[in-house]
Amino acid sequence: MDKIVTLSDGESTAELQKYLSSLKNDQLIAVITNGALKGKKVGTMIKGIFKGSPPCSTEGSNRRLLVYQHCIPLCESGDLQTEVAADIIGLLMLETHTLSGPSLAQLASLFVEAIKVGKMGSGKSLELFPTVLTALSACEALSYGKGELSGEEYKKQLINSLCSSRLFYLLLFFFLCFPHFRDVPLSPEELRFVVEKVLRMFTKLDLQEIPPLVYQLLLLSAKGCKKQVLDGIISYFKEQDVCQEEEQKHGDLDLEVQSIPQDQLRHVEGTAILHIVFAIRLDHELGREFLKSFKISYGDLCPFSVALLLSVARIQRYEEQVFDLLKVAIIKSFKDEQLQQGSKFLQDLLPGHCSVAQMILDTVRNSVFGWDHVTQGLVQLGFFLMDTFGPKNGPFGKTTEGSATIARTPTQQACKLGGQVLLQGFKVHEPIRGEILEQVLNRLVTKTASPVNHYLDLFSDIVVSAPMILLESSSKVTETFDHLSYLPLATVQGLLKAVQPLLKVSMSLKDALILVLRKAMFSSQLDGRKSAVTGFLLLLKNFKVLGSLASSQCSQAIQVDVHSRYNSAANEAFCLEILSSLRRCLGQQADVRLMLYEGFYDVLRRNSQLASSIMQTLSSQMKRYYEPEQDLLPPVKLEPCITALGDQVYLQEPLAHLVSCTVHCLLWLQNMRRSSNPNMGDSDDDEEEEEEEGYQSELQTILESMTRRMIKSELEDFELDKSAEFSMGSSVGVKNNIYAVLVMGVYEVLMEYNFITANYSKSCFEDLMELFNRYHKLSEILKEKSGKGRVPSNKTPRSLLSLGFISTLLSVLFRDSTQSRQEALSVLRSSGEFVRYAVNVAVQKIQQLEETGHTDGPDGHNTDRTFRFLCDMTSVLMWRYTNIPSVVEDAGKKEKRSSLSHLCLEGLLRIFTACQQRYPDKMAQLLSTMGNTCVLLKLQFSFDRQQRALFTQLSGGDEEFNSKEAQLLVSILSVLSRQLKPSSQQFDQMITWTVKICKETSFEDSAFSKGLLTLLFNLHVLYKSPVSLLLELCQDIHSQLGDIDQDVDVEKQSHFATVNTKTSTTAAVSLLVLSQVDRVLDEVDWLIARKKSQTVADKSGEATQTAGQQDPIEKAVTLQLGTLLTALNELVQTALLPGTCTITLLRELTRTYSILTTLVKYYIQVCSSQHGALPARFEKLVKLSGSHLTPQCYSFITYAQVQPPTLQFYKLVPTKLLRETKAIPNLIFSIEQYEKYLITLSKKSKVNLMQYMKLSTSRDFRINTATLDAALQEHDETQEVTEETQEPKQKKRKQ
Known about the structure:
Distance between the termini: 103 Å
InterPro entries: FANCI (IPR026171), FANCI_HD1 (IPR029310), FANCI_HD2 (IPR029312), FANCI_S1 (IPR029308), FANCI_S1-cap (IPR029305), FANCI_S2 (IPR029315), FANCI_S3 (IPR029313), FANCI_S4 (IPR029314)
Structural class: mainly alpha
Protein name: FA complementation group I
GO biological process, one term: DNA repair
Largest sheet: 2 strands, antiparallel
GO molecular function, one term: DNA polymerase binding
Strand content: under 5%
Number of strands: 4
Pfam families: FANCI_HD1, FANCI_HD2, FANCI_S1, FANCI_S1-cap, FANCI_S2, FANCI_S3, FANCI_S4
Number of helices: 56
């Protein structure tokens, strides 16, 4: 060894070569081994050997190869020091390029065999392998078997051989060699092969081995195959999640140990996400490829990829893109789900649905396992969804109140999803709780111009789910209280209602709120003072005083399971203190007083111990406006109830509401005292009872006196006779209107009071009717006077009758058969006006419930009681309508107003609609109250009732046909039919009945026909596709209206009798059919877009479609369009009325051709990727469109341009709008685009599709031959040249 070193240091290499030649291979190996083990000058020695072994000579080349062949196993043996082995490998790497081709081939084979047999123990020498492969790929020709291969091909064979080895040794190679493998120049095919091999190994590995392999793969992706790497990793974890979910589902049945521990899988997924995000930070091309793969279709999303997207969103440059991508995916998922739920055709074609919302919620649950890098993205996503899709202001800044619990539209569902993400995140992640709470409260304070109902719901859910956690952040809630007086009233009400559970356990929070409310009571802003009243009333309702009578409504208060340190005695002092503050409100504006009067009843019901204080307050307030002198009329003072500011007159005291509040509180107290059994013998209780009886009897006396004197009072006593002015343009008119509303309200309140206290006494009911007669007289005057003014009158004032009273009144009027009550009830029943009034008020109350979710008066906000009243009224109204025929009610028809039966039907329709919107879960319970316990049987029974009623209407002939009632019946059937399951027998019966009605009834009422056909379509779309129905209707319309060519006789056919001469000449039926055409086109367009996205996603994969077998979706699309084209072919030949129908048909034709163009583009895409034949059905579709529809379209265009619009059309559609319409040019452009892409497809598919197309008519210059003929004949009747002027006819290509 020393000699080799010495000779290599010398200048002459000849002696070194000579010495090396004298050494045998064994001797040389021994020298190298000894030097390496000693670790002294081994590098210098190997350099000397290389120096004395010129690569150009055979001997030198062999000696170099010998050194490589010996040093590689030596380094792997583990006998050498790490530094020595590293030096040797470094030297070998430097000299690799000098090796000859055969030597490199042998060396590479040595590596492959060593890996295969497992001799690469430490893997130290594997660093040399990529260098050998790089040098090998540069060789031109190498002998391989009996032939020759290029170095590149030889390298490919080696990699193939290596990737085909056994799993254990293959893993050894990838783990040890992968860090250096990326330095090997690989072709795209080789790289793809390697990546595929590694990805296939994932399923055979333990979970713990996945993250390092993912890391190495991401490093390798710098060379290419980025999409393949990412898709492979994501699909692996997607499969693991599915397996995990399946195991959890069947966990009760299978008691074996889980193959995939959940916590272990989630931690591995979290590590993999960190690796991918780190790689994307370094390689932005990888990030772009990642986002691009999800922009095509959200179907590739899974909980793992959602978590990955949210982690990537932390990188600033991708944040906006990620949230936009998720927003589009979420809203599209909800829209797709809605589309599928509303179409049986789509459900059968695509049974499954990919729910992005469920994936996101799964991601929230999975993030519990240490996914801190995901939680911030979840918070951002939640608020992003709520901000983007939350409720918006309606026209003129008004907020349309909707149901808080039901999310129907995709936008509402997306907003609700945002709230669910934040709520679940708040529950499971402690670090983000403060941020979520702060952002919610900030939005409540700052978003004063837009609705914040969704944030209030979220805050309420947070409080209920974790009240004690919120106490830790009570300072943030206290800060929000400081802004109460500046917030909208609805926000204040929602916020204070939500925070009630916290006030019961936190004295500091309660004290802070009271301080803020006291300040707000003296606010200069009206809303501030109303907020103070709201807050104080809520506090009174929710702080129970010792000894308060139990009532079923007390359960409405939100209860928190904590140990409260406040006792009831302290609560009483607290409540009395608040009441004293509220008394100041009785001197403020009418709106503030009104809130107080509406809230006192609920306070009394929850805290009966406050009765004395409340009743004294109401009594003293009533006495201000009550005339104590019994001989004076009227018994109320109206002048103090108004105030004037300049020329403007305002309401100061809502007197009727004051009386109403007093009456209801008094009645409730009397009822509760009667039903309770107070302890006798207690002196304190006796004194209290005497006091209560005192003010109760005093109030009773006042109310009885008011009743007696209001009956005696004439309208002149209130200065409200027929000669009074009611114009809203003058101060006197405004004053009289206010007086009239107050007096009518007092009449109503006294009617309710006298009915409840009458105990079915005939004399009391006669007094009640006297009150009603005066009410009715004033009401008629008000309607008559206000209708004469230029300014349209306001709506009828809201009735002050309570919903509970109306429910009771309807029951006794229509269904009470108790013998002892008949004489008294006959007084009420004999007045048709009173019965109509009762039903009208019921309809008004139900409408208010439908619009706002509550009604005026006691129990108006109590959902349970309100629903019970609805059930009672449903039963009564249904009985009244079905048992008393409307023929009896001739008076209603003569006076040109709605009959009582019509009002009952309207009430039923509003009840069903309101229940479906406000109490969707209780709809079956509502229907079951009509006499049957089985919901489905009851549904069918109610349908039978409506059907019998409708048959009665239809069988009476046109003279007795009541169109409005028939329309209401159809509307009720439409609402009730939504409760039937499409798979049920009742649904089939309903469809059969509806089809029968449409086919057999022929009434010339377009509104009724439209309602009936709408019901038919709504049912049919849940049964099967409505295209066949559309075809028959289009044929009927064509038959009724005639052809655009007057010389053509249309075959008389009638599938549906409801489409007759009268109904088809109005736009209603035609527009309904065209709207259904648009709906079918929506479904077809959606299916084509879905297929296109699948084709793009599967482009890299193999074609799965078998030759000669058409894809089910493609087949369905072709059949739908074929039937639709046939239906449209009927319509374009129909002499439709000029105007809306014509323009709508032109637009639908334009859309049809656009969708046909989309379908052609899809087949162009298919032909480009898969060289298959076009389906025969598609060729037939093209033939149908080209030879039948297109020529008729051009004929219809000519017809539409020549036909003069009717006078009615000019009234509906201004001439300017007609002139600016682009329907015709758009249709022509769509047809030409369709033909253009058909030419492209013909070239791609080698099928001549244009043989079915006829040359389009030129639109730039046309000669109307008929007009020209007439002009020429008139010019010169004697000339025979007229024959030649017919020549342009040959250019007319309408057929």
